[in-house]
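hi got a favour to ask and not much time before my train. below you get a single protein, a line of residues and a line of whole numbers that encode the local backbone shape. could you go over both lines and see whether the tokens make sense for that sequence. a few lines back from you is plenty, here it is:
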Amino acid sequence: MRNLLRLIVPEAMPISHKERLRSASGALIGIFVTGLLGHLAVGSGAALPALIAPMGASAVLLFAVPSSPLAQPWSILCGNIVSALVGVSVALLIPNPFVAAAIAISLAIAAMMALRCLHPPSGAVALTAVLGGASIHDLGYGFVLWPVAGNSIALLALALLFNNLSGRRYPHAFRPQPASHGTKDPAPIQRIGFSSADLDDVLKEFDQVLDIDRDDLETILRRTELRSYRRRATHLDCASIMSRDVVGVAPDDALKTAHALMRNHHFKALPVTNDNAEVVGIVTQTDFLDKASWTGGRPTIGLLQRIRLIFSGRSAPNGTVKDIMTAPVKTVSPKTPIEDAIIILAEQGLHYLPVVDDNNKLAGIISQSDVMVGMLADKAENND
């Protein structure tokens, strides 16, 4: 009996109660407001429906699984509109409702896959156009504009607002890739284990639509791989390998001052701290190359970076470190295992990590070289 239940009932998803509440609350608000807007738009005595049933299925995707490729804005808008067009056209051409329904859903799926806007609730939209009765048939192609397009736009707008206000990024944003060096070498995270080409080949062999973004899948697999390495790795912490006599700069220090410090000490990065020694950013050689202009051998703020600062809402540039520093900055604590630091460095393509205490005050800094040397030294001790 237990084995039978395992076949029928799926394993519980590792989702927090907070996430479950957020999904349910989002759907409640989304459907209620969409229906209310529909009622205001068509009036109480109108023959037009204020809200159609497929929006309930769309709400499940937009509020419960907003990272799914099936829940993205292009999917819901294009999928619902295209399926409505298909459904209305088939209903006009084929009088038999069952034959029309089968052909409508088949053509809708084919069209959505061709247009890369697969959205499961759109199948119900196509069937509604065929089986919705006289009131829907009387609308003709007007059904595409209302209620399909109207409901879809309203629900999507609410999903955009709710998801972003509640801490989700929607539309689903891809994780930023580490900066390319312009060579044939893959990123550090791709030099261990499987390659991106390996994953692409497996997906081609699998030859099925997956309800997960391809890049998300790769990220999950690489994190799993890194955690496997971490389980088998050494157990030093960052305090044992970090540089403690750290040279830093203040946000209001001149660019030429920071550049002189990096050149004189042969540093490639400087932590940026405020008056309380709290880390507020980091300035690197890449920041000087990408964000600063050079005049007479001295770094200045060029036009492009001034425009970036204006659009980001930062204060007017005055040729100081805060104009080019990377903020916020990823940090670790002295107690962070170096295995965790390796994951951060590898996943985000970083070369340096400031080490901060419990009060976010600068305690040291670690580099990729520090991590490598620490691991080799610890391995040598274990072998002895």
Summary: The mean pLDDT is 86.
